[in-house]
Amino acid sequence: MADRKNAPGSPDGEPVYLVVGFLRRAHGLQGELIMDLHTDFPERFRAGRKLFIGEAHKPLTLAGTRPHAKGMLVKFKGIESSEEAGQLRNQWVYVKATDVPSLPEGKMYQHELFGFAVVDENDNSLGELVEIIETGANDVYVVRDAHARDLLLPAIPSVILDLDPARRLMRVHLLEGLTEDRESGGGKRKK
Q1: Backbone phi and psi for residue 144, each to the nearest 5 degrees, phi listed first
Q2: In this structure, what DSSP letter does residue 157 have?
Q3: pTM for the complete prediction?
Q4: What pLDDT, in 10s, does the model give residues 48-59?
Q5: If we measure between CA atoms, which residue out of 151, 155, 132, 134 comes closest to residue 143?
């Protein structure tokens, strides 16, 4: 999930932050916290790594980590008690988009898809990819047209036909019913 308030090219030029975890609650008496993982790269969490906490993106440095259930226990430098750790609970954990590992050729991070022009198989413009909704089965791409109408596209191979990163273009196949919904004003989704 990308924090779109500070998107590249924004007038303020601030960095884009990506969610990598969620701090649940303090664990024990030494300032550790239980963190849910929201990344495919849990190995990035090592002592010395700078993370950004909450909507204010408060920078904190990891002092240590260890596995715990489906997530991990994290300890930050300067957080020495369960009371101090408790002040960080129920907050998202971010990294800067510029600090993520490189992917193999042909692979892209979700945040890199924002702003892609979306066209159908006949090169008819459908709009721009503005949001990705994470669901249990597959992601859903929200494509907004020039009239601020949203089209929801399941991110599955039969719909997403081609990505052209050089042209920032996504070619899609519209499933039966999507075109009728859009033409009748349906298929809208409010944020």
Answers
A1: -105, 130
A2: T
A3: 0.65
A4: 999 999 999 999
A5: 151
